[in-house]
Write a structure and sequence with these properties.
Layout (H helix, E strand, L loop, with lengths): L32 H24 L3 H4 L19 E4 L10 H7 L8 E4 L7 E2 L33 H6 L6 E2 L2 E4 L2 E4 L1 H4 L14 H20 L3 H36 L1 H29 L23 H24 L1 H20 L6 H24 L4 E7 L16 E2 L15 E8 L4 H4 L1 H35 L12 H12 L1 H27 L6 H35 L3 H14 L1 H34 L19 H39 L12 H6 L13
Helix pairs in contact: 1-11, 1-13, 1-15, 7-8, 7-18, 7-19, 8-9, 10-18, 10-19, 11-13, 11-19, 13-14, 13-15, 13-16, 13-19, 15-16, 16-17, 18-19
Length: about 725
């Protein structure tokens, strides 16, 4: 580059001809330096917050259950005992008011024991066990008893062991839920006829009592913060989520290879496939609607349920699906009919982009780098959130496991704190059933009191980093493809290291500009998140006017975010070519597009639509597989993964789909950026040159034929 022209200063004016301009400017200076410093400061603060979260947090609170002494099951001394059972689960349903107040309603007031695996059969103490001379080791199972009790050497009687709640008096087949053994409802239906606990009249009363205890226990789990339960799902399914993201990576690679060699065939197969899938969906929805047409069950009769199959039993659900698919199919047919010619031109433009990508094959590998950076950002955000939400030491209170109205245990009101490791029940001789039970996690420290602000900063920094990574990829690819377009002799003048040169140049001069554009987008995304949060919190209390205003704000900010993404994208292309600041580049890109708005709307947007359908195909394929797997409809052999382990099975499904979209976005951004860069350079070429010997076009003859430009006198040399 020998020099560069001074761009038109008045808004809307075309760039003048510059005989020395031959592609991306090489002599540059740092742009938007203040924003660069601010971004680096936020990154440094984000790292400091991660270190503090690592020091104060303990993910074991989420990953592993605890026994009554506060030790984790499956860790350390209990490494071979990853499950936890409740010695007397019936007490979960008979919690007194004092116990409920002391424990905050989130803990079952009974001894908890770490065990190797959950019980798999029905068992209860026989009548002979209550004989004073009975030997406890002949009746109890050591693996289900408290570790402080040795059945071989103990001098306690069976009744004394039961009173101290050191061993269970009955066992039922159980399944692990968050590491806790909960009775299997399916197994309870086939309980033996002699399974009747003392004080109960029949086996039905016993089963109903156990079900009531389970309901109280699960209700206690549901009182936990929603964030903790969501992170529990992440903790139990993170490796399967990574497997789903890897599948999305492979599908995207295959689709890109097919697009490289079979662009026109693949696009028309995609269009026809969408029509066929939509038609099948309409037929299936009509069939299901007709099947449930005689059902009296209405959508309003259902309460919120994470089991989606419940809603599929209502005819209104299938009617809504039928209407949506009919509207979608009609719009798709209308678009294909009206834009049939433009679709052919768009496909040809994609073929030209494929040819360009063929000369710059290294650009196909760049999405892998983007993918790695995005995984790092997501992993750092997830781990930081997990450590933040589990910060604070566990607190314990002294609680009586018996009814305080019966004996002197009423002196224990549940306000006294304790430590399980040093707790001595003999200090309370008037109440033998006293225990030191977990209450909650400490939230009185300075760090814990500011967790809300730290989580907000965590989300803000995460979004900024993700948007910056995407911006870095867009600017790097734009510079690479621009160097191809502005090479007069293609591909002789194209550097074999064009991608690495553009990447280094972008990091050296334009971190501030990319951070500026990413910050603007992050601010709009945060506002949208706040609006979505307010919409969920006030959904049941707001009036019609409030709902209308809130929905209007949500719609407006969605449109603004979409517009800003388009503006940023074109601004990054101009930054890659001319090396100017973000605001100047955004203004010039906007002015250039407005001067050629006809071509932009009818051609550039059509190619974006085709690429969007490709991304939709990847997300739909991975999302369907994730739905069948995490909902339990596809099961793996053994106990590798069970859908019942999840609080909300839609959490990993949405995570996989969101990750698949980000991955597909990264890969399809290669073709998308190639098309947008070629299109923007084509518009600049039209304004700078006229095809004469003095001002030859840089566009190829094939690109000129695609965009219906009259044949010039001189163009760039053919490929």
């Amino acid at each position: 580059m020998k020099g560069t022209s001074k761009r038109a200063e008045e808004k809307g004016y075309a760039a003048p001809y510059d005989p020395f301009f031959s592609g991306p400017v090489r002599k540059r200076s740092c742009t938007d330096l203040i924003c660069c410093i601010l971004f680096l400061a936020v990154i440094a603060g984000y790292m400091v917050m991660g270190v503090l979260a690592w020091l104060f947090g303990d993910p074991r609170h989420v990953l592993f259950p605890r026994n009554s002494t506060g030790m984790f099951c499956g860790v350390g001394m209990n490494r071979d005992q990853p499950r936890m059972i409740y010695v007397d689960i019936l007490k979960c349903a008979t919690t007194t008011k004092v116990m409920a107040a002391a424990l905050g309603g989130i803990q079952c007031p009974t001894t908890q024991v770490c065990v190797p695996k959950c019980p798999s059969h029905f068992w209860m103490l026989s009548a002979a066990a209550y004989d004073p001379d009975a030997n406890p080791k002949d009746f109890f199972h050591q693996q289900y008893c408290d570790h402080s009790l040795n059945l071989t050497t103990t001098t306690w009687t069976v009744q004394e062991i039961l009173d101290a709640e050191l061993c269970p008096s009955f066992l039922v087949p159980s399944k692990s839920a968050l590491g806790r053994c909960l009775p299997s409802l399916h197994a309870l239906k086939s309980a033996p006829s002699n399974f009747t606990l003392p004080g109960m009249a029949s086996v039905n009363e016993t089963v109903n009592s156990i079900r009531s205890a389970m309901g109280s226990l699960i209700s206690g789990f549901n009182r936990k913060a929603i964030g903790v339960r969501i992170f529990e799902d992440f903790a139990s399914s993170w490796y399967w989520i990574l497997l789903g993201l890897t599948l999305a990576l492979l599908v995207s690679v295959v689709f890109m290879l097919l697009l490289r060699y079979l662009a026109i065939v693949l696009v028309w197969i995609l269009m026809v496939g969408l029509l066929v899938v939509g038609g099948y969906g309409i037929w299936h929805c009509y069939t299901e609607y007709y099947h449930f047409s005689t059902s009296k069950l209405k959508f309003g009769d259902l309460s919120f349920n994470t089991n989606i199959s419940v809603y599929l039993q209502v005819k209104e659900t299938w009617l809504a699906f039928l209407i949506i698919l009919c509207v979608w199919e009609s719009i798709l047919i209308l678009v294909l009919s009206c834009l049939r010619r433009r679709l052919s031109v768009a496909v040809a433009l994609m073929e030209e982009s494929s040819r360009v990508v063929g000369y710059l094959m290294s650009t196909l590998l760049y999405p892998l780098f983007t993918f790695v950076l995005l995984v790092v950002c997501v992993a750092y955000w997830g781990m930081t959130s997990l450590y933040l939400v589990t910060s604070g030491a566990p607190l314990y209170r002294v609680v009586s496991l018996s009814d305080p109205s019966v004996d002197k245990c009423s002196l224990i009101n549940g306000s006294e704190t304790c430590k399980p490791q040093t707790f001595n029940s003999s200090a309370y001789p008037y109440c033998p059933s006293v225990r030191c039970i977990f209450f909650k996690y400490d939230d009185t420290g300075l760090f814990q009191q500011n967790l809300v602000y730290l989580q907000v900063f965590n989300v803000f920094a995460f979004l900024w980093c993700v948007n910056f990574v995407i911006a870095l990829g867009q600017c790097t690819l734009a510079g690479t493809f621009a160097s191809y377009y502005w090479a007069f002799s293609k591909p002789a003048e194209i550097s074999p290291f064009a991608l690495s040169q553009c990447f280094i140049r972008t990091l050296q001069y334009h971190v501030g500009s990319l951070a500026f554009g990413a910050l603007l987008l992050t601010c709009f995304q945060l506002v949208r998140l706040v609006l979505e949060y307010l919409n969920r919190k006030t959904r049941g209390s707001q009036n019609a006017c409030g709902r209308f205003l809130l929905n209007c704000l949500r719609c407006c900010f969605w449109c603004l975010e979409y517009f800003l993404k388009i503006l940023n994208r074109n601004a990054y292309i101009m930054i890659a070519i001319y090396g100017e600041s973000f605001c100047v580049s955004a203004k010039n890109a906007y002015s250039l597009l407005m001067r050629h708005i006809g071509r932009v709307v009818l051609l550039d947007r059509v190619t974006d639509m085709l690429i969007f359908f490709g991304k939709l195909l990847v997300v739909a394929l991975v999302g369907v597989l994730a739905f069948f797997f995490f909902s339990g409809q596809i099961r793996l052999p053994g106990d590798t993964f069970q859908a019942e382990m999840l609080n909300y099975y839609w959490v990993p499904i949405l995570t996989v789909m969101a990750g698949a979209y980000l991955i597909a976005q990264g890969f399809f951004s290669v073709y998308s950026m190639c098309i947008d860069t070629l299109f923007l350079c084509f518009l600049e070429d039209l304004e700078r040159n006229d095809g004469t010997m003095q001002k030859p076009y840089y566009m190829s003859r094939n690109l000129m034929r695609i965009l219906r430009k009259p044949k010039p006198f001189v163009t760039a040399l053919p490929e």
